Structures are given as structure tokens and as C-alpha cells.
Amino acid sequence: MIEHPLLVAEGLSKNYGPRIGCRDVSLEVHPGEVLAVVGESGSGKSTLLGLLSTELAPSAGRVSYRLRDGRLADLAGLGAAEKRLLMRTDWGFVRQNPADGLRMAVSAGGNVGERLMAVGWRHYGNIRDEAIDWLAKVEIDADRVDDDPRAFSGGMRQRLQIARNLVTRPRLVFMDEPTGGLDVSVQARLLDLIRGLVAELGLAVVIVTHDLAVARLLSHRMVVMRHGRVIETGITDQVLDDPREPYTQLLVSSVLAA
Amino acid sequence: MNAQAAGGMPEITYNFAYLDEQTKRMIRRAILKAIAVPGYQVPFAAREMPMPYGWGTGGVQVTAAVLGPDDVLKVIDQGADDTTNAVAIRGFFEKTARVATTTSTQAATLIQTRHRVPETPLRENQILVYQVPIPEPLRFLEPRETETRQLHALAEYGLMHVKLYEDIARHGHIATTYAYPVEVAGRYVMDPSPIPKFDNPKLDDCPALQLFGAGREKRIYAIPPHTRVRSLDFEDHPFRVQRFAQSCALCAASGVYLDEVILDDKGGRMFVCSDTDYCNGRQEAGHRGEMAGEGA
Ligand SMILES: Nc1ncnc2c1ncn2[C@@H]1O[C@H](COP(=O)(O)OP(=O)(O)OP(=O)(O)O)[C@@H](O)[C@H]1O
Ligand SMILES: [Mg+2]
């Protein structure tokens, strides 16, 4: 891609005391690109996502992001107010456990409307209309707008989480195992939905998954992690069809065997 | 330090207004900071008071810190001067500070209140001290203290509107009638304590100093005189105070906050001023409601 990268990580490391979370990771994410982070349990995927999204502070290295004015800014140098504004307008975060990404006691409309209110929307009717529009985009009926997520199925909760994040039209969304814990048929529907929205909105996504089928379906590029390091990176189809590293070969074959 | 033996006879004498001078200075510093940053919750080292927390120990400590020997104190609870709570707090300061007390809003220089703002407009050189159970307006949706502090610091108040949004979604209108959140001086959002939202407009541009004390939560906040206080709302659901169809059954006042009083078990009831001093004043001035005179 010729376009300037949206997110740049350089030499990212994270130690949890003596334990290594993630070590010396450098990568770029381009506008509109879906990057999958794969690897077995404990390989450092969530840690890397936490570092990229600045929810975790790195032990070493840095993350830069291209602001809307074109400037590539070191995120550690942004003020708290600027960073939070970025997080609730330009970014999204879809979590594996919907309870971590939703307000479970707040209606679906309120969940979707929160970001709008946070950026200054003060007309109830407009907020509600926009929320209903977004519920439709994630295939939730308008008549569920006043129900809270406790009354929703797992798949609906994830779709609500997606609507809540996308309502401010972010440019970059982080997803940590968004289909984890869902039935296979529910998973397939959610993946189709994510794929459609990503294409429609031109979103850049960093998605963590241990499911190579998810990576295959959604991502353009992928990185393979092991023991906190990125051991292989490339175009998704190439990595999956022709893995270089013995470990990746093992990973791919074990999936095929499964 | 509070108790001294005098003249052989063990006699307990308290420092003026119970708290020792050092504690009062500490509380005054918190109050000054609160006045300097209107609506901001200032932490303070709340002391144990000889009464349970539900009785307004935060308000009592603020009152103790600002009370002077020449003050005239009024204490109200839900608008009334004669409830157990109001009588106990008034008695506490009569005993520990020997200050004059009153039930008259006009005559008082310092008013400690729970759940109401007097109907009689306050004036300069008066202080209104509110008892506050839960000072954090964002607590309802965000229980994490570290997070609410951030939200205040960055003036991120979208969450407060989520609460109002939920009200409208559930009830068709903003159903919050007590502790209705306000924005102070265009900056901090604060909980005005559980006063009816009917009283919210009285906080705006008030000539008196308003102080808020939360004992259990150890917070003090303030609205200096003549400060802009705006109740949060939506453009298409503007803030409105409650309106009462009736007037007071005793003094015929309208446009005041009324309490419903059940008269018998056959559905008999009447509406009377919640502010008893205001109601008595009107009756003494000759105003008569439909039920007035019968009991008197
Ligand atoms: N808060 C923490 N404290 C200590 N160690 C941690 C912490 N979080 C993660 N680790 C360790 O860091 C390593 C990477 O963990 P991480 O959660 O990033 O892996 P992951 O690839 O997301 O795994 P999974 O697929 O199970 O979610 C693991 O060894 C883990 O035990
Ligand atoms: Mg993980």
C-alpha cells in the first residue's frame, strides 16, 4: 500500500514482572486494512492489542497514530483529554466479553447513543434516530431499542457492541476475539456482518483471534505471535497457504486437522 | 481535647461547635477551595460526629466550621423545622455553640438543610448548608471513583446525559425528580443533593453562599453567590420543574413545593407547603387555604 500508515508500532515490549507479555513488536496498520493477530493462548495477542490501543503502557517502544490533520503523533505524547477524545471518536474497541464493552444496565439506544452524547449531541430525538439506524445496520430490530443488553443473546450483544463503537464513524477498531464463545452459526453471521461493515465504512481493524478461519475470512494481513514475539507476518492467504515458519505450519495444520 | 475536667467535678465542655479548632481550620480550607472551584468535590478528612451518618454529619461539620457566635441558625429537614433530625441538629449547636436559633428563613444567617431549599428567597450574607448523602452525580452509571474523577477533570459529561436519555426512553420524559444534576459556572456537573428538582432554579444566581457536605463520602463542594447553575437537559426535552395543580390547603400559596398529607384511611388527603416556616408566615399574614382554621 502506498498510503501513509494509520498506526505505527515500533519495538513494543511489555513485561509483567519477570513474565514477558510481548517483546519487540513493530508493525503498521494502513487505512482500511484488516490486520489479524493470531497465535496460541498466552502468546501475547491481547497484550499487543492493549499496547496498540494504549490501554497498556509499554515497557519499551512506542505507538504512533495519524491524526485527522495528517500528523503522525506519538500517542504517549498526547494529553489525556486529546487521547480520550481520540478513543471515543476515532477508535473503537470490541471486546470478547460484551459485559466489558457495554453498559449492561443501559438500554440498547443508550449504549449506542453514549458516544454521540459524549461528543455533544443534545437532541434526544436525533440521538434515538441515529441509534435505531445503527441497530438496523447490525441487524437488531428497532423495537429492541429500549431493551437493555441483559435481555439480548450473545450474538446480539456483540452486534450491539459493534454499533456502539461505530456510531461515531471511527477509522480504527480493535477487536479481541469478537466471536469467541459464540455458537458456530452465530459466529458466521457476525463475521459476515463485520466484513460488510468494514468494507462499507473503510475501517482499519486490528483483530485478535486464535481462530485461523476468522483470520482468513476477515483479514488482509496477519501476524503470527509466539512467546510474545511476532514470528511471521504477511498477506493472510499467503501465510495460511504457504507458511514459512515451522511453528506457523504447525498452527495451520492443527487447524486443518481440527 | 474536647473534654476537660473543671473544678473537681467531672464536667464535659466542648470546644465551640464541638469540633476542635484545627479540624475546623482544615474544613474551612476545603470550603475555600470548594468556593474557588465551584461545583468541584473537594475531599476532606471528615470526623466522627456524635450522630449517625444518615443524620447529615457532612452538613454538621460544614456548619460547625463556618458557624460564629453571632450567627442565627435554622435547621430544616424536608422543609420542616420540627422533625426529629432537625430538632436534634439544632439542639446540638444550641448546646455546643450556644448560638441563637430560629425557624425563620428571614432571620437566619446560617441554614442547614436536608432535601429542600426554603421558599423565601435567600439573601446576601446568608449561608445555606446542604446535607449530602452521595456527592458523585456520575456514580449511577460509573461506580469507579478513578474513572469519575477523570470524567470531571476532562469535563466529559456525556454519561450524565445517558442517564437522562434512559429516563426518557423508559418513561417518555425525564423522570428524575430528586438530585437532578446541574452544571455549575459552565464547568463542573454536580449533584445538588436530594432536593426536588423544583428547587433547582433557586440555586441559580442565588445571592447566598451554598455549601454542600457529604460526611460518609468525605466531600465538600460549593456554589458561590451569584453563580450560574443550569439543570442538564435535552433540546427537545427541556428541564421543567414540577407543577402542582392545587394550592396549599393551609395558606393558599401556589407556585411552591407541596407535600401530600393523608388525612384518613378513606382516601382523604390535602396538599400543604413543605416549607413550614413559609406556610406559617403566610397564615400569620392572613392567608387562608381551604382547610385552614379547622385545626387551629
Ligand atoms: N496482567 C497480567 N499480569 C501478569 N501476566 C500477564 C498479565 N496479562 C498477561 N500476562 C501474561 O502475558 C502473556 C501473554 O498474555 P496475553 O493475555 O497477551 O496472551 P493472549 O495471546 O491474549 O492469550 P489468550 O489467547 O489466552 O487470550 C501470558 O504469559 C500471560 O500469562
Ligand atoms: Mg487474549
TrEMBL record, chain A:
<comment type="similarity">
    <text>Belongs to the ABC transporter superfamily.</text>
</comment>
<dbReference type="InterPro" id="IPR003439">
    <property type="entry name" value="ABC_transporter-like_ATP-bd"/>
</dbReference>
<dbReference type="InterPro" id="IPR017871">
    <property type="entry name" value="ABC_transporter-like_CS"/>
</dbReference>
<dbReference type="Pfam" id="PF00005">
    <property type="entry name" value="ABC_tran"/>
</dbReference>
<dbReference type="GO" id="GO:0016887">
    <property type="term" value="F:ATP hydrolysis activity"/>
</dbReference>
<keyword id="KW-0067">ATP-binding</keyword>
<protein>
    <submittedName>
        <fullName>Phosphonate C-P lyase system protein PhnK</fullName>
    </submittedName>
</protein>
<keyword id="KW-0456">Lyase</keyword>
<dbReference type="InterPro" id="IPR012700">
    <property type="entry name" value="PhnK"/>
</dbReference>
<dbReference type="GO" id="GO:0005524">
    <property type="term" value="F:ATP binding"/>
</dbReference>
<dbReference type="GO" id="GO:0016829">
    <property type="term" value="F:lyase activity"/>
</dbReference>
<dbReference type="InterPro" id="IPR003593">
    <property type="entry name" value="AAA+_ATPase"/>
</dbReference>
<feature type="domain" description="ABC transporter">
    <location>
        <begin position="7"/>
        <end position="252"/>
    </location>
</feature>
<dbReference type="GO" id="GO:0019700">
    <property type="term" value="P:organic phosphonate catabolic process"/>
</dbReference>
<dbReference type="InterPro" id="IPR027417">
    <property type="entry name" value="P-loop_NTPase"/>
</dbReference>
<keyword id="KW-0547">Nucleotide-binding</keyword>
UniProtKB/TrEMBL annotation, chain B:
<dbReference type="InterPro" id="IPR010306">
    <property type="entry name" value="PhnJ"/>
</dbReference>
<keyword id="KW-0949">S-adenosyl-L-methionine</keyword>
<dbReference type="GO" id="GO:0019700">
    <property type="term" value="P:organic phosphonate catabolic process"/>
</dbReference>
<keyword id="KW-0411">Iron-sulfur</keyword>
<protein>
    <recommendedName>
        <fullName>Alpha-D-ribose 1-methylphosphonate 5-phosphate C-P lyase</fullName>
        <ecNumber>4.7.1.1</ecNumber>
    </recommendedName>
</protein>
<keyword id="KW-0479">Metal-binding</keyword>
<comment type="function">
    <text>Catalyzes the breakage of the C-P bond in alpha-D-ribose 1-methylphosphonate 5-phosphate (PRPn) forming alpha-D-ribose.</text>
</comment>
<comment type="similarity">
    <text>Belongs to the PhnJ family.</text>
</comment>
<dbReference type="GO" id="GO:0046872">
    <property type="term" value="F:metal ion binding"/>
</dbReference>
<keyword id="KW-0004">4Fe-4S</keyword>
<dbReference type="GO" id="GO:0098848">
    <property type="term" value="F:alpha-D-ribose 1-methylphosphonate 5-phosphate C-P-lyase activity"/>
</dbReference>
<keyword id="KW-0456">Lyase</keyword>
<dbReference type="GO" id="GO:0051539">
    <property type="term" value="F:4 iron, 4 sulfur cluster binding"/>
</dbReference>
<dbReference type="Pfam" id="PF06007">
    <property type="entry name" value="PhnJ"/>
</dbReference>
<keyword id="KW-0408">Iron</keyword>
